[in-house]
From TrEMBL:
Protein name per Swiss-Prot or TrEMBL: Uncharacterized protein
Organism in which the protein naturally occurs: Lacrimispora amygdalina
Highest taxon above the source species: Bacteria
């Protein structure tokens, strides 16, 4: 059972989620993100919490599990309102040898 105003349980990312994710992150540089789980919440739009594998382009590259939060406002004219990144939080890191 969901708490009113709460986020949905995490689920696999689908094509619609990926479209929102890439719309919001297309201008980010220096780190690549591969989303694999998402939770959503409706509030004057849709809040997304994407759990991603991130790779920071350093030498050597650094990998981490990251939560990328995105907001997509409700709008009748979808082309005029873009999804935006509201926060990026590193959840854990690991090194690949």
């Amino acid at each position: 059972m969901l708490c009113p105003g709460g986020f949905t349980p995490y689920r696999d990312v689908d094509c619609r989620d990926l479209a929102i994710f890439y719309e919001a992150t297309r201008d980010l540089r220096g780190t690549t993100y591969k989303p694999y789980l998402v939770a959503t919440q409706e509030a004057r739009g849709v809040n997304f919490r994407f759990i991603c594998n991130s790779t920071i382009m350093t030498r050597p590259p650094q990998n981490a599990i990251t939560m990328v939060c995105i907001f997509k406002p409700f709008c009748k004219e979808h082309d005029k309102v873009r999804a935006v990144v509201t926060s990026i939080c590193k959840m854990g890191c690991y090194n690949c040898f």
